Structures are given as structure tokens and as C-alpha cells.
Amino acid sequence: MDLNLQLLLLYGTISATLAKYVFVKSKTSWTDAQTNCQAKFTDMAPINNENDQTLIQELAAGSTAYIWFGLQRNMTDTTKWLWSGGGEVTWFNWESGQPDGTGSQNFGILVNFKWHDADDKLSGFSFCFSVHVVRQEKTWEEALKHCRKHYQDLATISSETELMLIQKELDKDVSTEHVWMGLHFLSGEWAWLDGQVREYEVWGSENKPECPTKTCGALVVNKEIKQWNAHDCQEKLHFICY
């Protein structure tokens, strides 16, 4: 591998993952927070795992306010919860005794960073999810440099919900058939640039290549086909940034 590319890859830090979240410090209801997130960013923020929970706490460190995030009750089966951007919730961080609400307590709020159910009338800060689709055709390395210059990094995808949110942005305009993301084969394994553990993977029909000649990951632009594939890093594609 080219030495300059190795150095570029090593530059990636957890700050790239932090960039997918936006902490909005204006108090609103959950519904108004959702409207704001969808208008200015992508949607309200999902919290998919312990890593996401840690990132949220880092961004809002020191805050004692109530903080809305993208959790809402499934009104067709009130024992289940959904994300604002789509997808069923599979990981939870409820406070002891929560959820305890009935009736209108149908939304998720952070209280000292533990999850509580709450009424929409409550007022709180909020977390949004933000992803950027860049419709310029670049090689994987060129895309990486562009993301780090203008945003933070090429995007990682840590859950089905995040994939759905990215597809939502891709649907807004025409893109290349595949788009670059922050997945690269490095030191004998596929890895996300920000170091996240690959808990969520959706490789295409070719499955995950173990000794690939094509070493860059690209997402299929089709909301009906949730998958990514290995591509030649010199292809010129559109790309997604955090």
C-alpha cells in the first residue's frame, strides 16, 4: 500500500463518528425536535449500541438537561420501540424501572444519559443524525480527502437504521450506482476508518472477500437492496461523509 495512503488512513479518529451526531441546544417537544432534525439534517439520532451511547455522552458532557433522541413507541404494538428514521430498536439503555409510562409517554428522552419514556409535552434539547452525500465522482482516496477537508470523514454504517437514513439522503437526487463509504481492507481485514467494531455487515452476493484485489467498500444505491461490495479503489464514484 502507498505510504501516503497508510498515513491518511491512520489519521482517522473517533471525531469522525462524533460528526454523525448534532447536539441541538434549544428546548422543544419531541415532535418539534423531529421536524427540526428532518429539515436541517437527516433525522433524529438513533443510539444503536454502547459505542453510540458513549459518543452521545461525550458530545453532551456536563449537560443536565433532558435530551430527546429518535426513540418512539410502535403504536401498532406498544411493547416495541422504533427509530424515527426507521427500523426496530434492538439495543436499549433504559433507566431502572423504565419504561414506566402509559397513554402519551411514547417518546425516548435521556435523563442523565439513561433512557426514559416521556410525554411529547416535555421540553428538552435533542440529538440529530447528519450525513452528507457528495455527488462528485472521485476515487476512494480522493473521496476520503474531500470528506476530511469539508466534513469529518467517509461515513461508517453501524446499523440497519443508519443505512436507511443514508438511503433517505441518497434518494433526494441521482447518484452513481454505488457510493464510497469508510470501509477499507487494511492489515489483513476489513475495517471502518474510525475503528468501530463491525457488528453490522450487509455484504452482497459475492460475500465478504477474505483476500481481495478490490480493497475499498462501496454501498449499493438502492433502498430495496441493502448491501455493500468490494470495489476497485480507483473507480470514480459519489460518496457519503459524516
Notes on the protein architecture:
Pfam families: Lectin_C (PF00059). 23% of the residues lie in helices and 29% in strands. It has 242 residues and is α+β, with helices and mostly antiparallel strands. It has 2 domains: 3-15 and 132-241, Mannose-Binding Protein A, subunit A (Mannose-Binding Protein A, Chain A); 21-128, Mannose-Binding Protein A, subunit A (Mannose-Binding Protein A, Chain A, Roll). The strands form 2 sheets. Strands 1, 2, 3, 4, 5, 6 and 7 form a 7-stranded mixed beta sheet that branches. A hairpin with a 2-residue loop joins strand 5 and strand 6 (114-118). The radius of gyration is 18 Å and the shape is elongated. The protein starts with a helix and ends with a strand.
Brief sketch in words of this structure:
This protein is α+β, with helices and mostly antiparallel strands and 242 residues long. It has helices spanning 3-10, 15-18, 30-40, 50-59, 140-150, 160-170; strands at residues 21-28, 43-44, 67-73, 81-83, 107-111, 114-118, 124-129, 132-138, 178-186, 189-192, 216-220, 228-231, 237-241.
